[in-house]
Design a protein that fits this description.
Strand content: over 45%
Number of helices: 1
Low-confidence stretches: 1-9
Strand order of the largest sheet: 1-2-3-4
CATH topology of the largest domain: Methylamine Dehydrogenase, Chain H
Distance between the termini: 26 Å
CATH architecture of the largest domain: 7 Propeller
Mean pLDDT: 87
Largest sheet: 4 strands, antiparallel
Oligomer: single chain
CATH superfamily of the largest domain: YVTN repeat-like/Quinoprotein amine dehydrogenase
Helix content: under 10%
CATH class of the largest domain: Mainly Beta
Number of strands: 42
């Protein structure tokens, strides 16, 4: 929900107790109560301090409004009582149903939203813009807007559209730029020199300086960002995309030529530079030089989903057919399901702590590889062994392990699920900026005090 200034005021989550999984309608009463309907029923929500008190209401037992009988088979999106008529927004148009069962067609547009504003009514259409009940088009909202929702409170009217949010505070509708990255479908995050870099699946890279968001590389960077990391020596930011690798140095982009332009994974090297996993092998990039790691160098797999360097200088490569490593002497080893170390051969993420290697997999959760006799590795699954770990979705901070999974954020030695860590359950990555842990997901970004998030369930 947002206030009259267009700022978020509250977020309702699954933990708050709303029944069902899909909210189909919301209505805010003057008392401050919020009425909600979901696939699981109806609810009355009242704010008390910093929490919502939710009362589940029984299903309606009264007979349906007889005025609706003539609309059987039509998809209804919005209902509103106005004077002595019931206004009904449907795919086929806006209907006004009278108490005598009369019906008149107000508009033939696909009507998705209704709102009472003063003594009139606004209706929003899917593709034809916004109108008053008398059919007058409302300026300020695009004439081809797909209006998904309307709201009115305290003299402020909001229209939620596929083109963004439009707000009328008494001087006409204006587009409101909501703060945040260029897209809420976030693929990777990184923090460097007081800036937060946010890569998205479809809208490039956004930068947050603590107060404002910007898109300094719009148009010059591929919109699909797959991975981000920060150079340990220079503090430069490395960006892996579907069309290549770039380095952000002194505010400018520097493109790095690789055998494959599709970059899946990045890991900063301890002495500077970056290890890159691509759709066709891997590469070391440091001091302006690119060193290819492929079949000729002993890397038997082509598609590399995860990369990393352990404290001993060994390089690790996650593939869809197990985990490969190369030590400083050039000797290669493989860990896989066939040899008993991994529950799943598709390795999506890596993290290191001391002599342990944490391995995230697509369908087998996280495994810890501990050093055994004669340099062998012994695998043990962490937590309940469940979870789909996203690409680059493992990190160790202050000795605590964090895992970004499709089911949510997992933390601690037991990898328990942390509730409400980010908007949406599909957590895609982390960035630690001083005392703040940023958690990215496919529905947005959330910042938390680092210590609190590490410990709470």
């Amino acid at each position: 929900m947002i206030d009259a200034a267009g700022k978020p005021t509250a977020v309702l989550t699954r933990r708050d107790g709303l029944p069902g999984t899909r909210v189909t309608g919301l209505g805010l009463e003057p008392s401050g109560h919020l009425k909600a309907t979901t696939e699981g029923g109806r609810a009355d929500l009242a704010r008390e301090g910093d929490r919502w008190v939710i009362t589940l209401l029984p299903p309606r037992t009264a007979a349906p409004d007889p005025r609706l009988s003539g609309l059987d088979g039509r998809t209804v999106f919005a209902l509103l009582e106005h004077r002595d008529e019931l206004l009904v927004g449907t795919l086929e148009g806006l209907h006004a149903l009278g108490p005598d069962h009369s019906s008149r067609l107000v508009s033939t547009s696909d009507v998705r939203a209704l709102a009472r504003v003063g003594d009139t009514v606004l209706y929003g259409t899917y593709g034809d813009g916004l109108f008053r009940l008398d059919g007058t088009r409302i300026a300020g909202v695009p004439s081809d807007a797909r209006v998904n929702g309307l709201g009115s409170s305290g003299g402020v009217v909001c229209a939620a559209t596929a083109s963004g949010l439009f707000v009328d505070r008494g001087a006409g509708f204006r587009h409101v730029e909501l703060p945040g990255p260029s897209s809420h479908d976030i693929s990777a995050v990184a923090s460097a020199r007081g800036l937060l870099y946010v890569g998205t699946f479809d809208s490039g890279l956004s930068v947050f300086d603590g107060e404002r968001w910007s898109e300094p590389f719009a148009g010059s960077l591929d919109p699909r960002v797959n991975a981000l990391t920060v150079d340990a020596a220079s503090g430069d930011v490395w960006v892996g995309t579907e069309r290549g690798l770039v380095r952000i140095h002194a505010g400018a982009l520097e493109k790095i030529d690789l055998p494959s332009p599709v970059v899946h994974s990045l890991s900063a090297l301890r002495e500077g530079g970056v290890l890159v996993g691509t759709a066709d092998g891997a590469a070391l990039v440091r001091n302006g030089a690119v060193t290819i790691i492929g079949p000729k160098q002993g890397l038997s797999e082509r598609t590399i989903w995860a990369v990393g360097e352990d404290p001993r200088g060994s390089l690790w490569f996650g593939t869809s057919r197990g985990l490969l490593s190369r030590d400083r002497s050039g000797r290669w080893r493989r860990q896989a399901t066939s040899s008993g170390e991994l529950p799943d051969d598709w390795v999506t993420a890596l993290a290191f702590h001391g002599s342990d290697v944490f391995v995230g997999t697509y369908a087998g959760g996280v495994t810890r590889l501990s050093r055994g006799a004669k340099g062998t590795r012994v695998g043990s699954r962490l937590g309940d062994g469940a979870g789909h770990v996203n690409l680059g979705g493992l990190t160790v901070h202050a000795g605590a392990l964090l895992a970004a999974t499709m089911e949510g954020l997992r933390a601690g030695p037991d990898l328990h699920l942390v509730s409400d860590a980010a908007p949406g359950a599909d957590v895609t990555g982390f960035a630690i900026d001083g005392p703040t842990l940023w958690v990215a997901s496919r529905r947005g970004l959330a910042g938390h005090p680092t210590t609190n998030l590490m410990t709470r369930p």
